[in-house]
Design goal:
The chain is of the alpha/beta class. It has 21 helices and 10 strands. It binds adenosine-5'-triphosphate. InterPro entries: AAA+_ATPase, ABC1_TM_dom, ABC1_TM_sf, ABC_transporter-like_ATP-bd, ABC_transporter-like_CS, P-loop_NTPase, Type_1_exporter.
Amino acid sequence: MRYHLQSIALILRTSWQVNRGATVVAFVEALGRVFEYLMPLFVGLAVTGLVDHRQSLLVLGLLGAIGGQAFSALLGIAGVQARVGLNERIGHRLDAEIAGISGGAPTLDHLQDPQYQDQMHALRERMGALGMAYNSLVNTVNNLVGPITTLVVAATADLRLLLLLLIAVPASFGARATVRWEQQAEDESAEAGRRSKHLADLTVSPVPASELRVFGARRLVRGLLAIQSGQWRKPFTRAVIHGSVLQTVITAVYVAGSVAVLAWLVRDALDGRVGPGRVATAVLVVGQLREAVSNLQHGVHFLAQTLRTVGRFRWLGAYGERVTAAHPGSAAAPAALTDGLTLDHVTFRYPGAERDALRDVSLHLPAGEVVAVVGENGAGKSTLIGLLTGMYDVTDGRVLVDGTDLTELSLDDWRARCAGAFQDHLRLELTARESIGVGGIRDGELPGDDAIHAALEDAAASDVLRALPAGLDTQLGPSWPGGVDLSGGQWQRLAIGRAMLREAPLLLVLDEPTSALDPATEHALFDRYAAAARETSRAGGVTIVVTHRFSTVASADRVVVLAGGRVAEEGTHAELMAKGGHYAELYGLQAAGYR
Ligand SMILES: Nc1ncnc2c1ncn2[C@@H]1O[C@H](COP(=O)(O)OP(=O)(O)OP(=O)(O)O)[C@@H](O)[C@H]1O
């Protein structure tokens, strides 16, 4: 209960921050509802006035009935207007907070946490409920007014009508059971829902859709999608069937009870013990109470859904705080490196993985050096880069930046001093200026066009820009109006340009930057890399080139060979060749392949 009250407080606080006036006006609707539900009382007065020929009672009854409806309608309009604007603004605000929590997490561990993913999926499924949170709160208050006012009217008309309350109570228990079943259905189906979404995305995204066609796997994916969608919907269908059965039973009991109470009243009326006005009020109260309780049930149901979603939002907020608190480091990154980067007995295992991706790795990457990291698929090269850029926390050991543990540095500050072009580079479908310029954002501003041109020159990508119809203003991505598609290699070269925009990085990562490039471009690029690396080394920056192409490796100051998550060999190209070990063997194989 306390948790729900805190969620309600969060909704009220958010609404108040968004628009104070509308927050208050939305509640006046409830006042109008009081007059609406006093209707049976006024009708009873009018009937009594009519039967007893008491004009004042008749006028009071009619005025009350008509005026009450008009007043209620007016306040209703004001309330609805206030709510409409609020819903949207509250929704935007909470959406922005969710994006902030997810995007603001210092590391990427959360993206592999199934619990986080399930909560996020359930939250996205009901994203609209967050925007409607205040609305559903106001609705519940409005719907509470109905039964309460009706019960007051019933009590003043005839105490026997309060027996109907005995039926309303099980009804509210029924509503709670329905809510519980729904919550269970949401939790049970989250994983299947996520899998369905993944499979459905595969069939509509261009790259997977074409691979599935090539493999003739479309039918298989459709079959899997049907199974997962079925598993996703099954718990909801079960909850709906249970809810409907319960609702039918409750309604039948209510109808039977109402008939009994009304029969009792009518018999008394026939015996002259009860006046016709009271009977008229009673008939209206029976119908009104049922409607009011049903509205309340729906309102509570909707509110419970909303509170559940707000609960997930709060879970996410607490998760974000926990993750941020686990990275308290606030020291600024050094202006320049003098010693370099060190991995001290580092072991790392991905969340949920069964094996270490890196095991007891100790390495020193001296300031100003160009280090090539080589190794077979899965050797741990990208993982090493992930740890050096602080994307993941080491499981054991330390990563040191000029002797300072990376955990003591502000990760934002450290990453502002890192630059990189990655194997799975970002295809930012914005204008070319924005897509490249994000690599050099300063104080939220894109760099000037001259800087972008220079970076593209360093990345040997000026010709990609020259081919774009509107230069830096060209929209990238074929699915946008006027958008242009690029080849894999062209996207990659723009990504390298993005990396070259960072001034004097302390760590420049080139993670298989040439994998999508043709040999001529690759050759042109290596010379530029060497120049960029010399720039970087002036601030003591370390350049790491991860590659499968040994032609790059030979010119590096140092070569690190990873195998099975461990450092297999380390030294200069000449030293490793002379040693005749794993590196020499791989180099020999590739050289033979080129002959
Ligand atoms: N996100 C992840 N979750 C779990 N395990 C992962 C993840 N990424 C990589 N691994 C595992 O960690 C190990 C090292 O992977 P990593 O990507 O670092 O290798 P790599 O040397 O960069 O390989 P490649 O040359 O294929 O890019 C592999 O066994 C891989 O299966």
